[in-house]
Write a structure and sequence with these properties.
Helix content of chain A: 55-70%
Strand order of the largest sheet of chain A: 1-2
Shape of chain B: globular
Helix content of chain B: 55-70%
Number of helices of chain B: 14
Largest interface: A-B, 120 and 115 residues
Structural class of chain A: mainly alpha
CATH superfamily of chain A: MetI-like
Oligomer: heterotrimer
CATH superfamily of the domain at 72-218 and 270-281 in chain B: MetI-like
Largest sheet of chain A: 2 strands, antiparallel
Distance between the termini of chain A: 26 Å
Shape of chain A: globular
Chains: A mainly alpha (about 325), B mainly alpha (about 290), C alpha+beta (about 425)
CATH architecture of chain A: Orthogonal Bundle
Order of helices and strands of chain B: HHHHHHHHHHHHHH
Number of domains of chain A: 1
CATH topology of chain A: MetI-like fold
CATH architecture of the domain at 72-218 and 270-281 in chain B: Orthogonal Bundle
Radius of gyration of chain A: 24 Å
Largest sheet of chain B: none
Chain lengths: ~325, ~290, ~425
Amino acid sequence: MTTTDVPAAPDRRARTPGGATERRPRRRREGAAWVFLSPWVLGATVLTLLPMAVSLYLSFTDYNLFDPPRWVGLRNYTQMFTEDPRYWRSVRTTLLYVALAVPLQLALALLVALALKSVKRGKGFYRSAFYAPSLLGASMSIALVWRAVFNDGGTVDNLLGTGGWVNRPGWSLLAVALLTVWQFGAPMVIFLAGLQQIPPELYEAAAVDGAGKWRQFVSVTLPMLSPVLFFNLVLQTIQAFQVFTPAFAVSAGKGGPADSTLVYTLYLYDRGFVASHMGYASAMAWVLLLAIGAVTAVLFRTSRSWVFYASEGDR
Amino acid sequence: MTSLTVARKPVRWRRVALHAGCLAALLVMLYPLAWLLATSLKPADEVIASLNLLPSRLEWSNYSTALEGVNDVSVWRLLGNSLLIAGGAVLGNVLSCSLAAYAFARLRFRLRGPLFAFMIATIMLPHHAVLIPQYIVFNQLGLVNTYWPLILPKFLATEAFFVFLIVQFMRGLPRELEEAARIDGCGPFRSFFSVVLPLTRPALITTAIFTFIWTWNDFFTQLIYLFDPDKFTLTLALRSFVDASSTSAFGPMFAMSVIALLPIVLFFLAFQRFLVEGMASSGLKG
Amino acid sequence: MPGHRTKTFRTSAAALALCALLAGCSGSAESADGGKVVLRYTWWGNPDRAERTERAVALFEERHPDIEVRTSFSGYDAYKQKLATQAAGGDAPDVMQLDYRQIDQYASGGVLLDLAQQRDALRTSAIDPGLLATGRVDGTQYAVPQGRGTETVVYDVAAWKASGVPLPREGWSWDEWADAMRALARKTGRPGSVDPGQSEDAFEVWLRGQGKSLYTGDGGLGFTVDDLTRWWTFTDVLRREGAVSPAEQTTQLDGSVENTPLGRGTAVSDFNWDAPASGYAALIEGGVALGPMPSGADGTPGQYFKPSMFLGVSADSPHADAAARLVDFMINDALAGDILGATRGIPVNETVRKRTEPLLTGFDRTIADFQDSLEGALEDPPQAPPSGDNALQTTFARDYDQVSYERMSPREAAEDYVTEAKAELRS
């Protein structure tokens, strides 16, 4: 293996459009693909597709977990859209949350990852320390810590004089979002791993061409990092739409005060497991799936113009 | 931005500023952790009520209570169970997700597009909606109250998050690598194991670390599937200190969460350094 | 028979799964060791309750060498979720601890066994008939109460006494209570009580004091928008006056005593059930005492002895007989009673109670004395609430949040609640 070819200077010598050059091995490779895929296929069928199908079916039923599901057609959906003001409140709350948490968390994660890349001494220390909050998850103890720090007379109140956040409807969602942002370790590590994957030769080449730091960032780091940036963006967006644990933790499962942290999935949980309307909860889940699907599709569509894959050699 | 250090004066300056910035940020970041630690040593009447960081006196008995374990199950047993589950999950995820990711990223097969879309879609359904159907499946298989429902799914690449993660990394590798391997006579399996996998190491380590931590902290699945207290994990046990219908023991609960934190801290410390060596040491540079 | 059709659904859902997955890889926990009958028994509680329960179970196993009992427990919220999943998955444990609010749902969903079938193994004659009746749904005994509790005004003794405000006394009315809260707020500078407006339980006591109830006998709503508007107006006024806790504190209630205004030392008293009230004792320097709940204006008592927990047997249990024996042992056995003490409330078996009560110490003693002081003065408990109540309890607190954050008037919130309640109870 002596490839030092630099993918940023796309050398298209061996491009194989559509794999057309390898006619003979194609069938064998197709077989190989299914071998690689076999565990996934099994899991996706039994543990994912099947339960998903069941939940789709349940979304058209009245199902209280105990009695057999009763077919009600679209009633759950119409009820959700037309008769449930709390549902719409949860939609608004979730959108606000996504708009708050995703950009903040990604920006912070990228910033810290870049800073850590420049740090020479104590790299391991910094990386570990910045990751430390993410080790906790939103456990019950961290929930209690959060509620103390953001309470009346808590640290944040003392520093900023805003009063508590977790107990004021105008502020509580911010406290929830900050809990997510605080645990930016996962996207940070992914950024770091992505940064590591950028061949140093590219920077050397760019430096030889006389590119300054900013120029290097724009023309080397960003394009080379774009698949990972895209990954983080897509995943954090999906996860933000499904946010549950931080809201559950901060509000002790209630979505309060005054429903201000009752995000979509928390309300779904409340309907399904507290109120035992699993049919309704399933309908909510499928609406969410479609909504996230639409957003993700848009992200994928735009990705064609800004995500750069070395393996494809061009955009 | 790598500082391609051509020794110039402003560089030292910038380095100091960088460290100062990082440390200041850390101070804020780690404050809640300090709170967690401090609370684990607070006496019962201060655990919740006090809004001071420091306890008025150190209540070490929180730790001795936590170390007694729960319901006649020792902390070591709980720890062992947690390790077993998390370890199994790491192995499963790294293996199965990288296999699936390779197919999606590098091989061509019919239905690749739709299957990939389906895989991404599986991340989008809130897991609460499939909880009960999944439980029914495992119950019918007779696997409830075993560790299989916690580990088996990982061997079947059900966590699309990681498949997608590894796919993104593999797509970042230049295709020429495998072509070179193919010219050398490697089939897809050889080139997967000896060319692609080593180069994906940062992603695999990332997968391992996240899987370990997330599995460790996954209270919900463990709660649903485990019945016997001697199969319980640390994460499950620490919750049993808190019960709204009787007297809770928040102090020991905090102590237990600090204890439960230690193994994941160690795991992270042990593996985080492998995140550093990306391309540099993985054979591409040659 | 609904239970059967549920099973058809479960089976067909799982059949697909089975086709796809290799049927082998068993690791089933069901197989009994050495021909022993294996029972699974779950409850919620804390480590202390776990320890006592284990000892009682060990004694049971000693008496019945052919039965092995596997126990499991978790905190209340986690337990509810886990049990619901198990029940929905057709995997309910043989013996399960149940809450008042769960019984209707689990019984009508076909999860629970009709205990009359096990009349010989499970004796109920020593239980107060009024209490025993709470375990019935549509005339069938599905669950047996284990212990009883009652609501109480729990207060910071030192602070209340120092204020000079008259202490809670039997038969006091809600108006007298309100005056006391105002006086406490004036004298101590902190709210007299947590705002009871968010609590469906407190509302029920208030309703019963007027001869009404949360639910009618056939599971309908037992009160009107006007009733609820009056209750929320009553508490809303007190909140605005500062006599009860402000919204910012009330909203932080999460069920634990630590997160109440009384537990944090920002209020003088609280409404709670008597058993969890023991938690305050560790938090408040001068200790706490238990006072009776306020009554209706004409002295009608609103509070009642509520079965604190029930035991039920799974309808699917292959060992219903052994399961019934275990329930019988936990409730009726004298030695088991000695071990369990008051960990699940004051025992409901009269014989066991008379034997156990003198042995109680500490806060259990306080609870027993408090209950003794009410003995004979209270009316029978209502029957188990209809299943929709599970959802309504949170809705109640949520709607009151809208009142206390002044986003809705008491009437608007009450209308919201009643509309939702009617829909919930219909379905």
